[in-house]
Amino acid sequence: MLKVSGVSTSYGKIQAIKNIDLHVEQGSIVTILGANGVGKTTTMKTIAGLLTPKQGKVEFMGEDVTGLRPDQLVRKGISLVPEGRAILSNMTVLENLEMGAYHRKDKEIEQDIEKEMERFPILKERQKQLGGTLSGGQQQMLAIARALLTKPKLLLLDEPSMGLAPLIVADIFKIIKEINQAGTTVLLVEQNARQALKIADYGYVLETGKVVASGKASELIKDPRIMEAYLGKK
Ligand code: ATP
Q1: Can you tell me the distance from the alpha carbon of 89 to that of 176, in angstroms, rounded to the nearest whole number?
Q2: Fewer CB atoms inside 10 A, N or C side of the chain?
Q3: Can you give the residue ranges of the ABC transporter domain (predicted)?
Q4: Residue whose CB lies within 8 A of the most ligand 1 atoms, among 7, 11, 45, 187, for a mutation test
């Protein structure tokens, strides 16, 4: 479904990712792991069209989508939940959800908003509250629901568990698995390696902008070298 080939992205003279290759098969959960600052967010932003690669190619559903704008990629079915969630704090929960569907012209928007509120009952309860008044976990749920309202084929999640309490983290991972089982392919960036590998099919490990290991999640999680060298946390 997604094929990233030889992609390099720079910030001015700083090359943040170098010659990255990634594959995401339709229906799977793929995770990108690695320490702070190794280029995970840069990779996600490049796939979502927020950054343009200096080299390489991004293909989605067999089509070359390299260099397309984020809104064009959203229409093709790629939606990013950014690191830090990017909730609109001065808009209500309902308005935030409506923003997710802003480019849609179909008649199912209200019905889909209702569906997301069933998936996340707390959002229904708080629909009139301002986004900024939600807790971190609730904001993450809102950001995920908003992204799902774009009707993505591929959902990109950048560190969804960041800054959340362990119980909430468990909820978020459970929800990600459910979203995947309902048919959405997921590319997940995480520092919480063990939890990510538990729900993922395949994983990539990044170090200083390069892929240094990859494999089936069930094998990566058993590989002591990988777990010790890169995934020491939790
Ligand atoms: P984090 O866990 O902090 O999100 P990351 O693995 O996602 O880290 P990136 O944010 O992709 O890493 O950063 C990769 C490299 O690019 C780092 O060395 C970082 O300092 C650098 N970098 C990131 N954003 C910028 C920017 N806007 N301008 C210059 N350098 C940047």
Answers
A1: 23
A2: C
A3: 2-233
A4: 11
Kindly report the pTM of this predicted structure.
0.94
Say what the ipTM of the complex is. Answer: 0.91
Of all protein residues, the one whose alpha carbon is nearest to atom 31 of ligand 1 is: 11
Q: What is the pLDDT of residues 21-71, one digit of tens each?
A: 999 999 999 999 998 899 999 999 999 999 999 999 999 999 999 999 999
Residue 203, H or E segment: strand 202-207
CA neighbours closer than 13 Å in the CB half-sphere of residue 113:
17
* Lookup result for tokens 């594959």: 23
Cα–Cα distance for residue pair 122/91, rounded to 1 Å: 16
**Token digits for 17?**
């990712």
CA of 5 to the centre of ligand 1 (A): 20
pLDDT tens per residue across span 57-94: 999 999 999 999 999 999 999 999 999 888 899 999 99
